Structure formats: C-alpha cells, structure tokens
Amino acid sequence: MTKKFNQYSGKAGHLAVMSEFLILGWNVAIPEVDIGDDIFVVQDDNGTLRRVQVKTSAATDRQFGYSGQFNISIKNLRNISNILVHYVFIARKNNGWSKPLIIRQDYLLDHFEYNKVGAEHEGNITFYISFSDEKIECSGQDFTKYVQDFSDFPFIEH
Amino acid sequence: MTSLKIQVNKQLDGYSFSIAPSVREFIKKLFPNAHPANNIFVAYDTKSDFDLYYGKLENYIFPALLGIDNDNDLKKIDEIEFVDTQTGNALHKLTPHDEKI
Q: I need a labelling partner for A51 at 20 to 30 A (CA). Which of A31, A77, A100, A130 fits?
C-alpha cells in the first residue's frame, strides 16, 4: 500500500466514523485548519463539543481474526485539556470496516502509563490491536468494552 | 502508604489539573462518598491572583479534584504529587497526612 493510498483510506475512515455520529443525531465538522483534531462532534441544541481523532489501519490476517496497527503521538495523548479527545480506531478488513473502538484520551493514557499498553518509539506510541469474534485485545489488555462505546455520544432525537 | 498523582498540563491559557481514571476508581473505592472530577482548568491569571491572596492553589485544587470534603478522609492520603504530563517532572508535593488542612 502506498503512502498516497493511506491518505485515501484515512479519509474514508474519517467519513465512515462521521456517519456513525450523524446517525446518532450529533453534528460533525472537519476543522478548516488541521491542528490535530480530525473531527468536531457537536450537539446542535446546546453546543456540547467533543473532539474526535480517527485512527485507521489496514487489517493483517491472524490465526484467530486479524490485527491493526495504530500510531498516536505521545505529546498529543498527554495533552489533557478541558475537552478530552475521543480516539476512534477502525481497521479495514476485506471490503468493510471493523466495529469502531472508542476510547477517551484519559483512559487510553491510563492504559499506556499504568498497564504498559502500546509500544513507545520516537515520540509515538504504536498500539497493536487484535480483533477476533470473542475478544479485542491490545498488549494483553481486554479492549472489548470499548467496541462501539458511544456512551459519551448518547442518541439525540431530532 | 497512599500516594496519588495529579497530572498538570500547561496549556496556552492556563493549567489543566486531572487525575487518571484508575486513580478516580481508587478514590471511589477508598472513600465511597467521594465524587472525583475528571479535570479542573485554571487560567494563568486566576492562579497567580489566587497564589498571591490565598496561598498555593494546589492546596485547594486537590480536595476539589478528588471530590473529598472531609478533612479526616483527606488526612488518610499520605502524599500527593503534582506532575507535569509533558515532561514527567514533579512540580509540587503535598503531604495531607502531616499537614493541617
């Protein structure tokens, strides 16, 4: 896969995730200037804002299921501000996307700092996430609870 | 020995004080009546004014962040360390166990 195609698949991942928020009744926007946040997700009637960063990966077949490799900058992960970032991980498998894994920044940082999740290299953390029918794991930690965890994005009726 | 870490992130306009989800869980287990917060933001000018008129802001931030209002509960914590999230450096240390709150 070329570097150029990564941009195409990355954008396809963003749009796939954006459609999930829209179907929940949350509005979405892509910032005009790229400052690290991929998507702004907004509750229209009261202006509640959530920052979302989408991470995509091509799936690699494994004996049981498949895996994806995702990179995040340590500096960004440690930059805890008053509006936390929600990281959304999706992997492209055959002709479809995996179910999104949604992990809030403070939880992901907690996993990295205290559970030794992810591999640190030159200012980035690489998360190797394995997907199977029964379980989703990262560095031995069970991440199944984060699958489609839209609890911070409750359905909004319009 | 109960030792807690409070993360401090210096932003463009102020400080974000936060505690990790695992620390929040620990606090809730230790003090069932506690209501720990995710984070508290304080603008730079607010902090400097506060430090000048009332004393170190950190002394007032940690009970609010941990959601503990009982002095006896606070004294069960031996040490609280304020750590810069970007550098890992310790910025401030408190020992509620030994201090008059």
A: A130
Q: Do B38 and A106 touch (CB under 8 A)?
A: yes
Instruction: Please give the average pLDDT of every successive group of 10 residues along chain A, which has 158 residues.
Output: 83 95 96 83 94 95 93 92 93 93 96 93 95 93 96 95
CA distance A19 to A28: 9
Q: Chain B: nearest CA to A7, how far in angstroms?
A: 29
CB contact under 8 A, B9 and A84: no
Do residues B51 and B42 lie in contact, with contact meaning Cβ atoms separated by under 8 Å? Answer: no
Of A78, A79, A106, the CB nearest to B21: A106
What does the buried/exposed string (b/e) look like for B52-88 if buried means 16 or more CB atoms within 10 Å of the residue's CB? eeeeebbeebbbebbbbeeeebbeebeebebbebeee
Q: CATH says A3-146 is which class?
A: alpha beta
Predicted TM-score (pTM) of the model is 0.88
